[in-house]
Each structure stands twice: as C-alpha cells, then as structure tokens.
Amino acid sequence: MNKLIRFIPLILVLALGVVLYRGLSLNPQEMPSALVGKPIPSFSLPTLNNAERIVSTDDLIGDVVLLNVWATWCPTCKYEHPYLVDIAKKQELKLYGLNYKDERNAAQEWLTHYEDPYEFSIFDEVGTLGLDLGVYGAPETFVIDHHGIIRKRFAGAIDTRVWRTEFEPLIAQIMTERKQGK
Fold first, then answer.
1. Can the peptide bond before residue 139 be classed as cis, meaning omega within 30 degrees of 0?
2. Are 72 and 59 in contact, with CB atoms under 8 Å apart?
3. What CATH architecture applies to the domain 35-179?
4. How far apart are CA 177 and CA 146, in angstroms?
5. Biggest alpha carbon–alpha carbon distance for the chain
6. Could you report the per-residue pLDDT of 6-58, keeping only the tens digit for each?
7. Quick one: CA torsion of 119, 146, 92, 105, rounded to 10 degrees?
C-alpha cells in the first residue's frame, strides 16, 4: 500500500500535464458565446458624448454593425484603436463603441486624443449591457447583421491580419445576404 501512495503525486502531475497540454491547442480568441445566432439583447443606455441621448437595440438594427467593447483602462484597446479608425474610414458598415465600465470624462478625453472612429459610443458605466452580452473584458468585438442578430464575437485586438481572416469574409457574406434581401 505504501508503494502505491508514493505514485499518487506522479499520477497527479501527469494528469495535470495532460490538461495543460490540451490547453495549448485552444485559441483564446474563440470564446464561446451563447448569443451567436440570437438577437442582440434589449438595452436602453446613454451615449458617451451626450448623456441626454438614449440609444437602444433599435439603433443597431438595419445596418451591418461592428460593436466594439473598449475602455480607457484597457491597454490592448489603445493598440487596436488605429485599426478601428481605418475600418471606420474604409468599410461600408457602422462602427459603434461600447464604453465598458469606464469614467465618462476619461473616455471622452481618450477619444478626443486618439480620434473617434465610432458613429457613437454607448456608455455602459456599470456594465449592464456588457453583462448581457457576456463580455469578459475589453476589447471584444461583435458583428451584428442588419436584422440585429449577433453573427460573431471576437475577444482580443483587431489588427490587419485579424480583420482579413476573422471579419472580412463574414462581413462580405452578410453584405451579400443583405443585397439579396435575406
């Protein structure tokens, strides 16, 4: 019996090694979302730049939309920001921001300093919409089709490679569906 007890740590280390090895094959940007294929959750929140202007789910329906979750406390958001500015200038889609758990003044200054690529940013001070969307943190980006259906959730920064591989094909498909009346 004593000999068997000596092997328990080895067995535990081997089991842990198998679990960790399995984790190496996972893609951290592929975060599961129960909302993909479902309508965007209902919300009614103010915009970042105008606390009197309330936007809702209806404001995100009718166009192909990128909803980018960002915050001033997020260093990766600063990295991806120039790519979002380029996307806003070049693409035939609407880019909206979701300012997540941030301070209004700091976020307004940030957009003034780095350029504002968004049609508007939803101010989600306490994170209610982020919670409904299943946001883990910033940055995350959602592709929402013209019917208000979430078609993709991407966790992490958007750059040229990510845009070309993860977003362009899907957006082209959605644009084609829209033109065909689907």
1. yes
2. no
3. 3-Layer(aba) Sandwich (3.40)
4. 10
5. 73
6. 777 777 777 777 776 776 665 554 555 678 999 999 999 999 999 999 999 99
7. 20
